[in-house]
Design brief:
Elements lengths: L36
């Protein structure tokens, strides 16, 4: 999973939340990686 942290040590929430303009996505995202 990926999670952003800013310079004030604030991190993204684990669950996305709805916002009025519906154009921002502020949740932790899961990425599948296959290593061979």
């Amino acid at each position: 999973m990926t999670k952003a942290t800013d310079s004030y040590d604030r991190t993204q929430p684990t669950q996305p939340f709805w916002n009025r303009k519906v154009y921002e996505y502020h949740a932790i995202d899961e990425i599948n990686v296959k290593v061979e």
